């Protein structure tokens, strides 16, 4: 089967819309075994005092480790090559940089994540990614 996309990147934050985005990406990947699926989770640094920041990061890393295990189990049903990544930093720019560095040719993401900030139509992260991504972005609602 001839496919347009060879590497799909899914930014994932365990929100309901990111779960839907992951399911959509898995459905796309099932179309051709040659499609690779990368799931990217981003730990956001908190602006707090040093001790609390370390504690918060440790808690986030632990939580992301549990979520990563859930995702890897879900991805194991695919015959495709899949990988999960956990990075730390500013989610919007990290997602775009990750896609560039890993030659992603499609991003599948939820329109809003777990952030408390909401914009009129798109969340701030998805809005940034749509504007700056070097490839097409499928936004799942």
Automatic annotation (TrEMBL):
<comment type="similarity">
    <text>Belongs to the universal stress protein A family.</text>
</comment>
<dbReference type="InterPro" id="IPR006015">
    <property type="entry name" value="Universal_stress_UspA"/>
</dbReference>
<dbReference type="InterPro" id="IPR014729">
    <property type="entry name" value="Rossmann-like_a/b/a_fold"/>
</dbReference>
<dbReference type="Pfam" id="PF00582">
    <property type="entry name" value="Usp"/>
</dbReference>
<protein>
    <submittedName>
        <fullName>Universal stress protein</fullName>
    </submittedName>
</protein>
<feature type="domain" description="UspA">
    <location>
        <begin position="5"/>
        <end position="141"/>
    </location>
</feature>
<dbReference type="InterPro" id="IPR006016">
    <property type="entry name" value="UspA"/>
</dbReference>
């Amino acid at each position: 089967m001839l496919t347009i996309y060879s590497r799909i990147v899914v930014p994932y934050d365990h929100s309901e819309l990111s779960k839907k985005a992951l399911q959509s990406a898995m459905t796309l990947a099932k179309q051709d075994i040659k499609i690779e699926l990368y799931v990217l989770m981003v730990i956001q640094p908190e602006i707090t005092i040093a001790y609390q920041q370390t504690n918060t990061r440790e808690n986030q890393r632990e939580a992301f480790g549990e979520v990563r295990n859930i995702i890897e189990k879900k991805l194991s049903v695919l015959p495709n090559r899949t990988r999960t990544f956990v990075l730390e930093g500013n989610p919007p720019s990290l997602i775009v940089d990750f896609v560039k560095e890993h030659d992603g040719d499609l991003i599948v993401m939820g329109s809003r994540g777990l952030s408390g900030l909401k914009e009129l139509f798109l969340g701030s992260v998805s809005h940034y990614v749509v504007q700056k991504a070097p490839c097409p972005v499928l936004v799942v609602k």
